Amino acid sequence: MWKKIILVFFLLFLCVIIIIILHDYNNPLIPSGLYIADIDIGGLTNDEARNIFHKLTEEKINNSIILTFYDKQWILKISEYVEIDADESIENMASYVKNIKKKGVIKGFIYRQRLKKSPLRIEPIIKYKQDKLAQLFDEINKVIMVKPINAVFKTDNDIVHIITDVKGQILDEDMLKEKIKEAIWTKNQTLVIPVKVWNAEMTKEDLEKMGIRVKIAEYSTEFDKTLKNRTENIKVASEMLNGCIISPGETFSFNKVVGERTSDKGYKKAPAFINNEVIYDIGGGICQVSSTLYNLALLTDLEIVERMNHSLPVGYVPLGRDATVSYGTIDLKFKNNTGGYLLLTSEITNDKLIVKFFGNKKIDKYVELFSETIKTIPSPIIIKKDFNLEKGEIRIEQGNAGYVVNLWKRYANEKNEHKVLISSDTYNPTPTLLYVGEKVKEITDDKNINATIIP
């Protein structure tokens, strides 16, 4: 008898539970514990939730947020920078509710009960007006941004030192976007602008790992510092080279490092060789920089990838040891084949251009360069008539001989000595101009002159 009564009560209890679960499952209202932004939408229909959220959105979108950084501040009117998609936000919520139903009757019921104890916040769909926001971020960065300073090598009496890097700071755009999103729905309408550390691209640790410690090679050339424009061009190009780091296996390009020679960069018009003539050109004189560097690369025994000699001899390096450059056409390139990093320094002391390579170890062999003149090409003579010279007079503009030159590199160490041909270059002669007078003397009719014609 008692067993039947207990069974009946159990079945009744089970029916009640099933009814509750089914009622909960078929309930068209939004489950309790669901929030959209900070609005409790539990127990509401989708339309009710949509209306409430639309009303709140219209209210919030017209608010402003104050962004502060110490004593600076910016006013952000939300409607100018943000769009809130109320309909899509509600659709997202509705999809979430449908997914609960898809869990099934029992699992869905358990999940809804958990929501009551641990409410869930569904984020509204917020779309930033990226162009406007980018303008604002640029304005803020102009005030708060501090650029990092890279670590650099410094040499003092050929001793290598490292000047440590300095960290910078920049606006943390992602975090600020999140803060703005949160502030839209809260009463906190003042935000402190978040910043993040901006690390230097080259740190002290990076330079230390390169192992650059000793001077490997040095070469210098002299110039006439009274030629102001030419001296300035040498100085500008030298500054571009100074401090360059060349990685193992890297091919160095003079044109890539120095860049195009323009007046905006400080280059001036000075004499330069173009088409076998000396003319004034922007950047005239920087071939002395490339030629000085070429000799340094040879003494360091680097692999020369690209190099061209001048069409005419130059006075600052021996024949066969010059390297002409022209942006976009003629370059000086060499490859770092030392197996370690190289530091290039370039400086001007009085009337000397001095370039040096520093690395992790000294060269284990002696390298010497010497030029061998194979042929001298006489200056051709060109005769020209000159109608400004009297007949019988001659004026000579002396040209220069040309040369065919071999450049050799001699290696020497404790065991042996040998030499290698580096290049064979031709320098064109310039013509000797012989001007012959063609001007006819005129007899002046002067009444003051008494003359007797003797037959």
Question: Could you characterize what this model shows?
Answer:
By secondary structure, the chain is an alpha+beta fold. Among the domains are: 213-363, no CATH class; 364-442, Resuscitation-promoting factor rpfb (Resuscitation-promoting factor rpfb fold, Single Sheet). It contains eleven helices and 27 strands. The protein has helices at 2-26, 46-61, 78-81, 86-102, 105-117, 130-144, 173-185, 204-210, 228-241, 254-258, 287-299, and strands spanning 34-36, 39-40, 64-69, 72-77, 82-85, 120-122, 125-128, 152-156, 159-163, 168-171, 190-192, 195-198, 214-222, 244-246, 251-253, 269-274, 277-282, 303-306, 333-335, 342-349, 352-359, 366-377, 381-390, 394-397, 402-412, 417-427, 432-439. The protein has a four-stranded antiparallel beta sheet with strand order 13-21-20-14. The protein has a three-stranded mixed beta sheet with strand order 2-1-6. The chain has a three-stranded mixed beta sheet with strand order 4-3-11. Strand 3 and strand 4 form a beta hairpin. Helix 2 (46-61) packs antiparallel against helix 4. The longest helix is centred in the first third of the chain and has 25 residues, at 2-26. The protein is elongated, with a radius of gyration of 42 Å. Mean pLDDT is 84; it is low at 20-27 and 449-455. The chain crosses the membrane at residues 5-22. Residues 365-440 form the G5 domain. Keywords: Membrane, Signal, Transmembrane, Transmembrane helix. It comes from Tepidanaerobacter acetatoxydans (strain DSM 21804 / JCM 16047 / Re1). This is VanW family protein.
